[in-house]
Amino acid sequence: MGLAKVTVAALGLMGGVIAAPVEERATAAKSCDANGLCYTEWVSPESISYRFAIPSNATKAPFDVLVSITAPVKTVGWAGVAFGGAMANNPLGVGLASGKTAVLASKHSTGHTPPTDNPDATFKMLPSSMTNATHWKADALCKGCSSWGSTSLAPTNKAANLAYAMAKAVPADASKITKHDSKGKFSLDLTAAALTDFDALVTKAMAAT
Ligand code: HEM
Ligand SMILES: *[C@@H]1O[C@H](CO)[C@@H](O)[C@H](O)[C@H]1NC(C)=O
Ligand SMILES: *[C@@H]1O[C@H](CO)[C@@H](O)[C@H](O)[C@H]1NC(C)=O
Question: Whose CA is nearest to atom 10 of ligand 2?
Answer without folding.
Answer: 57
